[in-house]
């Protein structure tokens, strides 16, 4: 589904990613881990087209999207929940959700502006907040809104950048449950950036670790406790 090959990217003349390769297969939850500042968010932004690739290749469903703009990638079936959520503070919850329809591949749904009930069902608290402004929500509520907004487009691949960062434990548990539900449904693959080992163990299938802008380890859940792995994650 997603294939990243020898990717190099950065900001201006500063190269952050060096020779990064990873894969996400259909139905998988792939977890990307590492300390702060190692390039995880830069990689996700490069996959989404927010940051331009210097070298290497990004393929999605067999098509080379390395030079495609972000909008095309979204309409091809890639959803994105950025670190920090980035909801539209002056718009209502309902208006934020409808923005997600811009990336929907179903032209009829884009035309009717109908929000898929399946996306909202995963966050049942949201309909009661439809009239509230996005900026008035708590951090956890904003995270649920950003997640649901990405699901509205019915993506084949979902990029989640630190979805548990800075939110209350009860909503972290809700987000874990939603990720497991998506995995069990088998229609959407996920690339998850997360630092909590407990979180990734509960939802992940395949794991990658980054250090200084490159992938230094990949493997399955059974090897996560190996001391050689843990040295890349401990501060």
Concise synopsis of the structure shown:
One of its GO terms (molecular function) is branched-chain amino acid transmembrane transporter activity. The chain has 235 residues and is α/β, with parallel strands linked by helices. It is 32% helix and 26% strand.
Structure description:
The chain is of the alpha/beta class and 235 residues long. The chain has a single domain, classed as P-loop containing nucleotide triphosphate hydrolases (Rossmann fold). The protein is built from nine helices and ten strands. It has helices at 40-48, 70-76, 93-99, 107-112, 117-121, 139-152, 169-185, 197-203, 227-230, and strands at residues 2-11, 14-24, 29-33, 53-60, 63-64, 78-81, 157-161, 189-193, 206-211, 214-219. A six-stranded mixed β-sheet has the order 6-7-8-3-9-10, with helices on both faces. Strands 2-1-4-5 form a four-stranded antiparallel β-sheet, covered by helices on one side. The radius of gyration is 17 Å and the shape is globular. The two termini are 33 Å apart. The mean pLDDT is 92. Keywords: Amino-acid transport, ATP-binding, Nucleotide-binding, Transport. This is Urea ABC transporter ATP-binding subunit UrtE. It comes from Cohnella fermenti.
């Amino acid at each position: 589904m997603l294939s990243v090959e020898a990717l190099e990217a950065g900001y201006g003349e500063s190269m952050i990613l060096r020779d990064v390769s990873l894969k996400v297969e259909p139905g998988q939850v792939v977890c990307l881990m590492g300390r702060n500042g190692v390039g995880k968010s830069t990689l996700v932004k490069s996959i989404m087209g927010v940051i331009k690739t210097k070298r290497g290749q990004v393929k999605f469903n067999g098509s080379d999207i390395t030079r495609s703009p972000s909008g095309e990638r979204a309409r091809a079936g890639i959803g994105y929940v950025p670190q920090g959520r980035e909801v539209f503070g002056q718009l209502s919850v309902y208006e934020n959700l409808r923005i997600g329809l811009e990336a929907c591949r179903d032209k009829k749904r884009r035309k009717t502006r109908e929000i898929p009930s399946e996306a909202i069902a995963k966050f049942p608290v949201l309909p009661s907040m439809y009239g509230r402004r996005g900026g008035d929500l708590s951090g956890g509520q904003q995270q649920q809104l950003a997640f649901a907004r990405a699901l509205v487009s019915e993506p084949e691949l979902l990029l989640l950048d630190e979805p548990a960062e800075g939110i209350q434990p009860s909503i972290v548990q809700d987000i874990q449950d939603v990720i497991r539900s998506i995995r069990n449904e088998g229609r959407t693959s996920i690339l998850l950036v997360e630092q909590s080992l407990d979180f990734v163990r509960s939802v992940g299938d395949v794991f990658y670790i980054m250090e200084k802008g490159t992938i230094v380890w990949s493997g399955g859940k059974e090897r996560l406790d190996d001391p050689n792995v843990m040295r890349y994650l401990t501060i």
